[in-house]
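Section 5.1 Outputs to date
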Amino acid sequence: MACKVNWTRRAWSTYDANIKYLQEAWTQKEINNFILLTDRKIANLSSHPRAGRSRNKKHPDIRYTVVHNA
């Protein structure tokens, strides 16, 4: 069963900053690859919510994942 994935403001902000950086420094191919990788990570979290890391002990059901380590 797929779960809904909610993005935090910080997640949207960093995603947007990454896209802007890629637009300035890289090709459209890298931008498309980053977007595709992000979409795949989101789909994986939706299908397998326990695949993400727990945010903290206070909120163990809130999970997150890193799209790409720089």
